[in-house]
Amino acid sequence: MLPEGFSSLVALAIEKWDWDALPKKNSDIWDALLYTVFLGATVRSAQASYAKEVLGDLLEFNAAKTVPEDLAWSKNAIKVINTELNSISGTLGEGYKKAILHIATQQVESLDLSRTIGTALDFFKEQKIDIQRIASLQNDFKHTLDLTDLAARQIHNVRYIKAVLWLYGCGIARDLVPPNAHVTRFLDECGYKGFGWSREPLDGWQIFTPACNCMRDIAKRVSSDLKQTITPKQAQAAVWYLQACRGLLPSGYKKQLTPLALIDFLDTQKWKIHHLNSKLGDIEQLEGLAAELKNSIE
Questions:
Q1: Where are the domains positioned within the chain?
Q2: What is the number of alpha carbons within 13 Å of residue 75 lying toward its C-beta?
Q3: DSSP 105-156
Q4: Which of 55, 70, 206, 220 could join 202 via S-S bond, C-beta 3.0 to 4.6 A?
Q5: What does the pLDDT look like over 174-228, one tens digit per residue?
Q6: Which has the closest alpha carbon to 99: 231, 272, 287?
Q7: CA distances from 235 to 73, 85, 97, 120 (A)
Q8: What does the DSSP assignment read for 47-105?
C-alpha cells in the first residue's frame, strides 16, 4: 500500500524532469561515475559531490588515465584533501565536510580510490563507453541491464547501487532502481515482502531484481493515479526526496515526515522541487534544511 500522498509527491518530483537528458560529451559520462564513487551508507549525495569537487582536476578523465601508473597521485590527492581540511574551520557544513574528507582520505590511503579509477578506465575502454553507446541504450532495457551487471562486477567498489546511479546520471536506466537503503526501506514501508527483515544491509545482487520489480509495480500504481506514464526511475526520485529528507532528521522524527508532510513543507516554504533538490545537493545547506524540516513537524 502506497503511503498517502506519494503519487502527489511523484508529480512534484517530475516537474521539469531532466533526469533523462543524455550526456553531450564523453567526459560527462565519466563525471557521472565519479559522483557515485564517494557514496556510501553514511555518505549523503551532497557530501559525495563535495568530495568530487575537492579532488577536481585529479579526477578529470585525462588526468585519471595516469592514476594506475602514477605513484605520486595518492600523495597529491592527500595534499589536496589536507589543504581543504585546513580551510574549512567555521564554514557552513563543517561537520559534513570533515566526515567525507576523512572517508576520502581513507579511500586514497588504502588505494581503493585509485583501484576504482583504474578498473573504471579499463571498463570504459573494453565496453567502448561513449555518448553514442549510451544513447543507443536509452530505450533498450536488456542491454542497459547487461551494462549494469558488467559495471557492478568489473568496476571496483561500484556494484549495483552505484552502477544504476551512474546510468541515471547518463540519462538512461529508467526501468531500473538502485537497491539502496532508501528504496528497500520504502518498499518495506509499502508492505512488500522480503524487505526490511535484515538488520544488516544486503549486498546489491541479493535485492536488485526484487527491488526493480517492486518499484515497477509502484510506478504502475502511480501511473494510474496520475493518468500518465511514470517510470520506476521517476518513482524512485520521489522516494529519494522523501528518504533523503528523513535522513536529516533525528530518529524520533523520521516517520513523521510522510509524503503529505513533505508536500506541506514545500508549500509552506513556497519551494518548487528544484529548490529542495538544490538544498539537498549543497553541503553547506544541509544543516539549515534539517532544522527547517524538524521545525515543520514539531
A1: 6-18+178-297, 27-128
A2: 3
A3: HHHHHTTHHHHHHHHHHHHHHHTT-SHHHHHHTTT-HHHHHHHHHHHHHHST
A4: 206
A5: 999 999 999 999 999 999 987 765 544 455 677 899 999 999 999 999 999 999 9
A6: 287
A7: 40, 37, 30, 29
A8: HHHHHHHHHGGGTSHHHHTTGGG-TTHHHHHHHHHHHHHTT-TTSTTHHHHHHHHHHHH
